[in-house]
Automatic annotation (TrEMBL):
Residues 30-67, 128-195, 239-259 are annotated as: Disordered. It comes from the Eukaryota. It holds the Pfam family RIB43A. This is RIB43A-like with coiled-coils protein 2. InterPro entries: RIB43A. Belongs to the RIB43A family. It is found in: Cytoplasm, Cytoskeleton, Flagellum axoneme. Keywords: Cell projection, Cilium, Coiled coil, Cytoplasm, Cytoskeleton, Flagellum. Microtubule inner protein component of sperm flagellar doublet microtubules. It comes from Caerostris extrusa.
Length: 259
């Protein structure tokens, strides 16, 4: 139960006590009529209460006080003690509430002062007290039981992965770009070598084809000449002068003589 609800409950109890004390019937009689007589009875009752509180015992009209008056005074005394106790409790709760408000204000001023002194110029968002370089309340983004009700807020870098990545990004980016450039150059050289090899193979194939064609033409020409020579030579014409020997007119060359 909050302090505000407790104070409200105490006020309701005090109000009910005052209503009950005002409706007490003395000596079993009905309440006094309104008007002059009623007001006089009320004044007498208040004077009796004042005298009783001043002397610590009820003011009796005489030695022969009735039982109803004694019971009414006892009930009023009990109600007065209860009202005083509840009033003290209400004051205590009110004082406690004021102290809590003062403590919250003091804590807010201290927190604001620390934030103002620790925040660097140009920084927009502050997650905690930046002046204290310590571990945040949540050790990591995957902690099962964090102080906060959420696991991880957008933009938080509890493990400093983002900072480390930014620090390593220039070197890795340069290395990656250099490696990519080397890979592109190597691929370009490979494509050029393949193209040159294809061109060389094509040239060699054309030369080989031309050489075979020349050899065939030369062979054909040689065969034609041989045939023409054999057709027009004296060997096939059967001329006897061809077989005549130089050793004498009656002698012949056997390999040229057909008989």
């Amino acid at each position: 139960m909050t302090i505000k609800k407790q104070i409200t409950l105490i006020e309701e109890i005090l109000y009910s006590i005052s209503r009950r004390s005002s409706s007490v019937i003395i000596d079993g009689c009905e309440p006094a009529e309104t008007g002059r007589g009623g007001s006089q009875a009320t004044n007498l009752q208040r004077q009796a209460e004042t005298d009783w509180r001043g002397r610590g015992r009820p003011q009796l009209p005489g030695a022969g006080a009735s039982l109803g008056e004694i019971q009414g005074d006892a009930a009023e005394m009990h109600f007065a003690e209860e009202a005083k106790r509840l009033s003290d409790l209400a004051e205590l709760l009110e004082k406690q509430k004021r102290e809590e408000i003062v403590e919250e204000q003091e804590g807010g001023r201290v927190s604001n002062a620390g934030t103002e002194t620790g925040v660097q110029e140009g920084v927009r968002f502050v997650r905690s007290e930046p002046a204290e370089e310590g571990t945040p309340p949540r050790i990591s983004a995957d902690e099962p039981c964090p102080i906060s009700g959420v696991q991880k807020l957008a933009g938080e870098d509890l493990g400093k992965q983002g900072t480390d990545a930014e620090a390593e990004e220039p070197g890795e980016g340069g290395a990656d770009s250099h490696a990519l450039q080397l890979a592109e150059e190597q691929e370009e050289r490979r494509r050029k070598a393949v193209a040159d090899l294809k061109e060389d193979n094509k040239t060699i194939a054309e030369e080989f084809r031309d050489m075979n064609l020349r050899d065939k033409i030369s062979d054909d020409i040689s065969k034609k000449k041989d045939i023409e020579y054999n057709i027009r030579s004296d060997l096939l014409s059967e001329d006897p002068n061809v077989a005549r020997s130089s050793f004498g007119p009656n002698r012949v060359v056997p390999d040229r003589w057909k008989g």
